Amino acid sequence: MEIVLATRNKKKVEEIRRITTDLPVTVLSLDDFPACPVTVEDRDTFEGNAVKKAFEAALYTGKPALADDSGLEVDALGGAPGVYSARYATDAESGNDPKNYIKLLKDLINIPPQERGARFVCCLALAYPDGRTKTFFGYAKGHIGRESRGKKGFGYDPVFYPEGFDRTFAEMTADEKDALSHRGKALEKLAEFLHSFSR
Ligand code: ITT
């Protein structure tokens, strides 16, 4: 089966491709469909945006499409930036990673260590051109540091310490991050679902 990866975030494409190499699917990207319209992410839940992105790509390409909507929920900010994580520091649809995490560090400047809890959320949506959709969630709990550390990964990785570790996601190897991350966990559930068809 061919699946179109409906994301324009190159780092997500990298992560999803490396975690799906064993799956019984051929993963195409939006580079194979350059004229596919950009989805307006105007829903107020990860699931709403993921399903919208996946379904629009499935309709346009005529193939099953997989979208990822993800973000960071910070306890001390009542769950913000949440679905607005990509554009926390700017109004642009797809934000600037260092600007976003620097704004987060500033917003949390007076928050003590024990109140800096946060979690990453990932909703993957698989949509078929006939309108069927299926969603898979993954979560990664942890806390926000006081300064950025590490150069790997993307987004808020340099300020996020997964639970039980004293290194940020940006200081971990790809394999370490994939084993702990919200996206890795959601992809495990997708893999189970896809394997159930090929057994
Ligand atoms: P697409 O909509 O094209 O997939 P996007 O970057 O706009 O790309 P989202 O709307 O889902 O994606 O925004 C997710 C944001 O959440 C992303 O830009 C990062 O800032 C943050 N984020 C998600 N997963 C992350 C991860 O694994 N590590 C660090 N930050 C992450």
Description:
- With 199 residues, the chain is an alpha/beta fold.
- Helices cover 31% and strands 22% of the residues.
- The chain has 5 helices and 6 strands.
- The model has no long low-confidence stretch (mean pLDDT 94).
- It binds inosine 5'-triphosphate.
- Inosine 5'-triphosphate is lined by residues 7-9, 12, 41, 68-72, 85-86, 94, 97, 100, 120, 153-157, 169, 181, 183.
Number of helices: 5
**Which value, in Å, is the CA radius of gyration?**
17 Å
Shape: globular
Oligomer: single chain
Largest sheet: 6 strands, mixed
Percent of residues in helices comes to: 25-40%
User: Which compounds are bound in this model?
Assistant: inosine 5'-triphosphate
Order of strands, main sheet, comes to 2-1-3-4-5-6
Structural class: alpha/beta
Spans of at least 5 consecutive residues whose pLDDT stays below 50 are: none
Our estimate of the beta-strand percent is 15-25%
* SSE string, helices as H and strands as E: EHEHEHEEEHH
Distance between the termini: 14 Å
Mean pLDDT: 94
The number of distinct β-strands equals 6
